[in-house]
């Protein structure tokens, strides 16, 4: 670049472009960081500028003298402005100057040559003009302007600028020329003596003196100066400016900004320049830190020696407000000096003459002719930055009247920029941080109380930026500031009652800040706070009535802070979790929640509510964004530790409150809670009282001075350190901790203890003893009161002499040293000993601020919390006011944008609550959303007018609920967000399930949702729960062709108030479709799917809520009608008066509970007992409930019985007895699910199956339902499963019941006879065989046939039953009743009769069944059974009963006409079969019977039966069959020797004679035909038998 600049004169100066391929954009932008290239010769340009200035001087002087030397270039002047380059230039002092001639020489030149032009004077020796000649001479032969001495180049131009009285146009030319030189790079970092040139230029423009008689020209000059300063600081040489140069330039800028006589444009331009310069300066601070090294405070250590040598005092430049008279224009005839023109830029007593002025601040350098070699050219660093910061902060002092408000606003804007650029860096350096912590905060916190909105807004902006960037070192200051904002902004009015909004739903919004006491005019408990009200008043921090605009500005300020993601977390950790700090996080959330309500606009502005709402929502949003972030724990306090501190804090606050009311009670409470170890230990009590700031100062003073508390008082004094303190200083420390009591005795006790403590270690020099301290202390207290009590106005105050006179001779008999007393007097007079809670003035402010600064060290730094480990505890503290606020805003909002934001807030709150398991918060969110949805009402909506409409192939139920819900967007949004919140959070929900359930019930009974739980898992396999039957069904598609005026008019006038159910209007249908759409969007099925997998404890909460919703009084249920296929009544039947009503919601809840309980074994154990109890309560009062409810409740109980049998929640006999106790019509109506439940319980072999099937109530239920055609099939299935199952369920206890029921089913099969006989008649008419319908195709007949088969199958079970009986003899069971004896006390012989005879009797009964198929099967089964070898028993009295109790009764029944008439054709055959069976059975057991004494009677009875059969007269078949059967019997008996003539066996004579005697009566030819009278060999002698006819009859 240097070679490129070395061009010949006349060659344009062109800087090379450092283009780079592929980076055209960056190459294009490179020129912005380089000097501007020009197309003319640089040297020529400099000469042209010089000639322009000398020409202007000539014109200004009105002289015709030539400027030959300036134009042609004269010989060099022997006077040098600056020394030549050399080593001495680097050894320069810090007081710079570039004018070795001094101000006096410049003044002389100005006066001599009359730069304003005096006629007749020669100007050829004018040093200002001649300097341009010398420059022209030196430029001769220069090829590269950048290699020319920059100091020499600037010399003539700087002289023009610095010369007093120079006309403004000339100064403008000089300034413009210099600006060009800098812009074009003529003066660049590579130029010789560049640093000195920049220093000289800075000194010149900050001491620019020119004629200010023309105000517009004056402002042009100042504008150019501002531009030039900005170019210097922001250009390539800005980093080499010295500390003094920077201070001079910034001071000059502040001067211009502060002059009220300047135009607004100039002052604003100056301010903008200052802002830009401050940006650069404070940006450099960050680079200076890097250059200084990584060591902490390295930059401070390197610059500490220079810190106090750099000063900037803008007050010396006349920053006072000009007097009014200075604004008057001067008389044209008089010289315009500074005292009359008002154009002066200085306020000093020295007045420039001839209207000349130095528009700048006083130079920090001396005016002597010091050598330039003594100038210190080190680049500026921390000292000048600190001084600039200090001066800017000093402008903010509200008590400094010479700084008007517009200057404070200007300073605030500049400070704001500094903080924006380098706030964190400012907090790192003690030199800057100290100013920020003390003066800046002190001034700011007073300015925010200003009524000037411009000041207030800027102060708030700076405060927020300060806290945003430097809060790490401003812990207590931030607490003070935010406490003030809370006190100002928190309204004192109650939340207005809104119609339709339950106040309890927004009760979480606090009415007042948590730890702010009421105003002094109100009664209070005297509780102190970390920032007491009085202290805030002294600091100007106590909130009061602020204007609406001021409130809005404060809210905006809080919004700025709240936009920091970690702001609220830091408040929570640093303040809410600190025992000695205020609960700022809670108060801030409460403040935002309260002001987010719409009514806050009445005392602020309409912008405040949305601003506060936005801040609240951002707070929630930040927590939600941190949910999935990894937990950062390093360097942060443990959350459990902070939680414990919060617990202690609450106890301390409560204990302090109790102490303020009753010290004894408060201390006892604190000891009970572990805050004070032992109240009897004075050290423990004193340590607590000294360490806490929450005890009321007045109460503390009274307690310590109370008689009996001397030990505690002494211990309290022991907590203080008075070492090296003067008595008044020590007393000041003491009286800052409590307030002196009013009684003199109490004061004396305190002063005595103080005197002891003060002299405890060693008596200070000049003090005789503790008695002297005692008296001196009293004297100081009196002096303090005398000097500062406002009630003493008009009275003569105590003088030092009076003070010394009062204490004469009290120092051990001597006087105190006069100097000692004078020092005490001066200290008290200038600085009152402020007693706590006294005085509200600047002195009070200074005291309170000093206290705050003293506590800063003990409070420690503020913890910056960029972590989520505290979010759970913070959210648990803050959720209530937030959720309450969101609810209120949502209920009162009218804009959809608000709905969207609030819904997002609800959703994020729910996510946070779910993540951290905060059930209470989630429950409240759900409660409020359900309230807004309007669907969670206690009473189920009316469904009597529901109408089903067919639209586009879909069915829609139009109901009152659906129409209303579809009209309002608010509940629609609420319902949607409710189920979004609920989905995935089901395991956290606890108490709010009841509201969800109410919503489900309302939607379900109006056919808007199905029972999702039944579709999730088909555990019960039940049909859908019956719901509302529509009052009418309308097909809109079919009616579209009928549309017209009349139909439109009819639709318009239709309403729910009509007597007949009206047809829904188009609007109502549209609202209903809208409702359906919103409900579908809720995706409630996902919730049910998640519920199915909830952990046990969460599921228990849901079930408890379901059970709580079951109405205690069924009469309160809503009466609805359901479809006729669900209730067994006629379609047109109306609800009978007094009959139970059907409540589908009740069924919904019961079934839901059952499904949840049956999920697995764990849920059965956990939930089974309470669910069973609820279901049993329904059954116990069955008469009050509808059969559908009873039916399903019974089925649920059977399912639970099977699942919970091992837990004994429900006993099978109790349940069965309850069911069997139903009225018969109820039992019949509920039979479907009752039998399904029974079948479920007995389908598998288990103890439950045995217990149920041995219950008499079980068989009573089946017996009752067997006769019902609808339930008979299931009853038979249950019965058959018990008979045929493996192992069989038939035991002695249920054997007879089984047979009775089987007999019942077989008997019902007689309906098959109708079909049989119909077929017979058809065959008879046609004369040919017809295709006969098989009776077994009839289900009833088929069951009858199966029943006969099952009866026969029972015969295989009899031996096992007889073996298992273990029946005892009837003699040992005399005390048992007949039934019990029949089951358990029978002998083995009677067991035969107990098991066999019932089967025979049953089969015998069915042998007369009119249905042939059943009858034939029964007869066959009977025959097979009777001929079974297992039938016989050793006891003939049992098995021989088959004749008297089975066969004989059977034949006698067959002989009855009424039996015969049931099937004339078939019964004849049955009689024949019966006769044959009788003969076969007799012959089967003939051998055994022959040994029985009653054989003769039995045989004669058989002959008698045969006689009756033969003579029945009902067909020829018997007349043939009876003789044949009898013939066979006789032959066999004869062959075996049982029936032989007496000649052959005299013992058989009676049998022989009686036999033929009877036979001959009805078959006289049979004896002759058989010819049995012929002799035959004797086969054997049968034993003698006695007639047993009577025994047979008895049996």
Automatic annotation (TrEMBL):
Give the top-rank taxon of the lineage listed in the UniProt record for this protein: Eukaryota
Instruction: Name any Gene Ontology BP term.
Output: regulation of ARF protein signal transduction
Biased region (Polar residues) positions are 21-30
In what residue span(s) does the SEC7 domain sit? 641-831
Show the segment(s) annotated as Disordered.
Answer: 1-30, 84-106, 310-375, 516-547, 1316-1338, 1573-1595
Comp. bias regions, Low complexity: 338-351, 362-374, 1574-1587
Sorted alphabetically, the Gene Ontology cellular component annotations on this record are: Golgi apparatus
Question: Which residue stretches, if any, does this entry annotate as coiled coil?
Answer: none
Please give the InterPro entries that the UniProt record associates with this protein. Answer: ARM-type_fold, GBF1-like_TPR, Mon2/Sec7/BIG1-like_HUS, Sec7_C_sf, Sec7_dom, Sec7_dom_sf
CDD domains attached to this UniProt entry: Sec7
Composition bias, Basic and acidic residues: 533-547
Q: Which GO terms describe its molecular function?
A: guanyl-nucleotide exchange factor activity
Q: Which SMART domains match?
A: Sec7
Q: Which PROSITE patterns does UniProt cross-reference here?
A: SEC7
Q: What is this protein called?
A: ARF guanine-nucleotide exchange factor
Q: Which organism is it from?
A: Immersiella caudata
